[in-house]
């Protein structure tokens, strides 16, 4: 189950006074709560660490994360409390691992990642993909391109080929 895949939705938590990251996992397709937005913010996340503005925000986040011994997931779960799965349902069967072993992310404007910042993908409690700057590491298309960001994972590929 890609229990943590929704964590990718919060990719800029350390880079702005207030993070407005939005979008969702396109594949594997999540099951959303009825009537809930699939691209709207679940919670507003204030700047978790004071990393300032401008300059090397990715480097600053990496340094702070290492100093504090925290992953992106740790930060997100600390900030969102009871909304850790966003608007996705947890009472449904887990989605199969995509046959190509890739997770696909789309912005709310039908492109790829649109913000500087880190992201992580988990299956249950196991991290299967990580990017320090997902907009750069996993480029997708621009707004309205219908080209999601592709997040490859050798762990996911191995699991997909085993089935």
From TrEMBL:
<protein>
    <submittedName>
        <fullName>Uncharacterized protein</fullName>
    </submittedName>
</protein>
<feature type="region of interest" description="Disordered">
    <location>
        <begin position="87"/>
        <end position="109"/>
    </location>
</feature>
<feature type="signal peptide">
    <location>
        <begin position="1"/>
        <end position="21"/>
    </location>
</feature>
<keyword id="KW-0732">Signal</keyword>
